[in-house]
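User: I've been going back and forth on whether these two constructs are worth ordering. Before I decide, could you fold them both?

Assistant: Sure. I'll take them in the order you sent them. The first construct and its structure tokens:
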Amino acid sequence: MIMGGSCWLFSVLVAVIAGEVRKIASARDTLLIAVEVLPVILILLAMMIPFQLKFGGEKGRIASIAAVGAVFAVCIFAGKAADIMNVDWNLAVLLDAAAEWSWGVVVAAAMALAMVLLLLSARISVGIMEKKEF
């Protein structure tokens, strides 16, 4: 968490300074994008920490990559299954509905999801550490 947060903060500072010096992007726009990226970082950390504790450094990274691949495979399988069963979940309709939400609601929902996943990750991690023998 400290590494992810410090890297996020450092990259935000560099992006804001570079954007202001080169007059490419305003600091406000850069900060808005950075706030949108923060829940993604937290969700990835929530997923990776239990794998790191369970399998160790290198195997934990491989297991994390496999887990992300499995999530994508399940999503693709669910989409194909919906097509076969003639279930119409029109993605364009979902995106249009989401576009009507305010930016703050989307970020708040993403942060709430990230916090729930972090709490679940912490509970799983505590269980892993209790079972480990030192």
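The second construct, handled the same way:
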Amino acid sequence: MPRQIVSTANAPSSPLYSQGVEAGPYFVVSGIVGIDPMTGGLAGITIGEQCRQALANCKAILEAGGAGLEDVIEVGVLLRHAGDFAGMNDEYARWFSSEPPARYVAKLGVDLPGVLVSIRMTAFTA
């Protein structure tokens, strides 16, 4: 099954990874942080601001591949600080208010200056 690389200017990018990859009915969004694609800087210093932007970035990548948040079956959240769990949940609940996808939360393993959260998603579009 061939895979298709999906990219958009509406989310941060890097030559080191694909923003999204579609393979058959599956669409995988790379771990995305809260960088505002318009400014190139972090969307803010709080977990709410960064989580909101990371989710908006993921949504933009999904849409570039013809999918949406309603197609997401799994979300992975990596937090820099365990104490940010409640703040992340507050923002996350605004995006997935009913019938949320499966989710895991773990500690962010690399120290990226200022980055509080990284979010990845898997969608099923069949």
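Notes on the second construct follow. The mean pLDDT is 96. DSSP finds two helices and six strands in the chain.
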